[in-house]
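Example 9 (inverse folding). The structure is encoded as follows.
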């Protein structure tokens, strides 16, 4: 038996608790909610191994089963309890302009034109309109704003 295997055998259930701690540290270092479930499974196996003296083969099987069960349970929980953001358009800059009116910076010809919003020039698509005409953003296709003539008030 090699030095690593003999160390694991000597530690017994503590090796599972150490592995669980390593997984929990990995969870802190790696983005996402993934390693925490393996860490929890290892901690449970460690606690069972320390209290019952379960053979290592059964410990390994228990770890695999608990890891798979925890991962599926977490996936189902996250799917059913997704959190709503207070700023759903945070990284969707084009959609932030929907419903707002702007002045065309370049005429819309053949369905394509440009509008200046702040210090940025955006591509727009819509019916042909002359430069200086007010348009309302109705949607977005990637980084292109979809526009229609603004209604006069």
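The amino acid assigned to each position is listed next.
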């Amino acid at each position: 038996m090699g030095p690593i295997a003999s160390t694991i055998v000597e530690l017994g259930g503590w090796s599972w608790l150490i592995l669980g701690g390593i997984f929990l540290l990995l969870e802190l270092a790696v983005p996402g909610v993934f390693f925490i479930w393996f860490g929890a499974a290892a901690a449970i196996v460690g606690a069972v191994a320390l209290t019952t003296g379960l053979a290592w083969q059964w410990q390994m099987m228990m770890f695999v089963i608990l890891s798979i069960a925890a991962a599926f349970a977490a996936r189902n929980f996250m799917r059913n309890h997704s959190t709503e953001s207070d700023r759903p358009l945070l990284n969707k800059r084009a959609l932030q302009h929907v419903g707002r009116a702007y002045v065309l910076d370049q005429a819309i010809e053949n369905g394509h034109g440009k509008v200046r919003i702040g210090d940025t020039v955006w591509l727009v698509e819509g019916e042909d309109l002359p430069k200086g005409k007010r348009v309302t953003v109705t949607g977005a296709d990637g980084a292109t704003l979809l526009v229609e003539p603004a209604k006069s008030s």
